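Sharing a chain and its predicted structure for anyone who wants a worked example. Both blocks are below, sequence first, tokens second.
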Amino acid sequence: MIENFFRALWILTLLFILSNFSIKREIKPTVLLDKSYSSRAIFEDLKAYEDAFSRKGFRVVSFGSDSLSDIGGEIGKADCPCILISDGLNNSPNDPISASIGKPIYILIPKYKEPPVLISEVRLRNPPRIGEFEEIKISLTSELNDSITLYFNRKKYSSFAKSSVTFRLGPFSERDTISIKIRGDSIRFYTYSPKEGKTAFVIYKLSPFVRFLRGKFPDAEILKEEPKGNYNLLILISPRKMDFNKPSVVFVDENTEGFRKREGEFFLRGDLPPLREIYEPTFKPDKIYERFENLPIIALKGKSLLVLSPDLWKVWLADGEYFKRFSEYLDENFKVFVEVFTEKAVYFLGDVAEVFISGYGFDAFSINGRKFPFEGFHTYRFAVKDTGEISLKFEFFKKGDKISTRTLKIYGLPYVSEKRRLGVDTNLLKNLAQVSGGGILKDTSEAFNLKLYKKIYISDFYPFFLLTFLFMLLDWGIRRYRGKV
């Protein structure tokens, strides 16, 4: 009969598991206590809060330092529900809102005192545009109710400010100095504005081709020799030599080395003027766009688009469709727009800098050698750990080939951001409570009386599975021993 007893037991435990009923158990939330510099600077004795919660049997987890307040990281690691005691000033890349989804967070804000007035943030589009005026917004840790003085290079600006003030500065140059002074604080930094890449016609010999391309590149410089500097595109008319690694449009004739002259009357179409000269390359082009029989007329080598007949402008003049096709070749190879910027030119140590990359005409880019795919817009974030000039080098690629470069510079100040952000971010804390399904606590008494429960399901209790298997094994073993199976 004992085998029937074990069978009844394993059937009973199996029914318990399948029913998966639950029981409620009261639990105490974990207390996350922010002891970062900003919290210690404005809140009353945090140690008293730690001791009070510990005496009531709560588990207290302290976090934060003089340079870091990682609220998002602590919420992500903690057993929830949680009581968060913090000023809400998060200076890590971990997003507290994302980390709180599905985890009830209850907010307790201690009584706080007025923090000292410091410069907490300077917003200025970076890089500023050379020759243009830009707005700069200066934010303070609390109300100043006094004047702010700003020096842009040697020009002085002054304005009365409460908690923030905006100036309009300019014109900016490649490197400018900005100093900001308030009662009890001051900062000084530099802005950097690289010259934008330009387009230039390099005309070694006068040619009607310039007339056709001038409309597509109205701002291009007109030069008589190949320039040095940052140029996105060179349009070379009758050059002697060329560099296939530089983005260029090259109009070849008898002066250009590396080509064989073919003379005759080459009709692309019966009603069009003939080409009397075609310059056949002595090398193999990477791509041929247009040809007359076996002779290429428009071809690509490296980053150079080659026009191999000095008479082709006559065809363009007679039939605009030919020039329209040539314009499409230009767009395919050289139409690229890149914008790299930050919303701030200056950062404190520990700040998280956000770099925004947008544009078209490229499918990948790299930042200081680290490569990323590109799909129209990208935000790159990094913690500022250095002071002085911080340089980021960007390279842009299309189908594996580098087509453009940019350099972005920001300035790091030798002050820890955690000590510059004093106050309470009530918006973040309220959003945390709302998104997570928690709430705002008025005081410690309400926190002590907070009733929270956790459902425990039978299916979560693994010993039931082990017991069921053990009873089944005993039932089968006894029956086998007695010859009943």
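Comments welcome. The mean pLDDT is 86.
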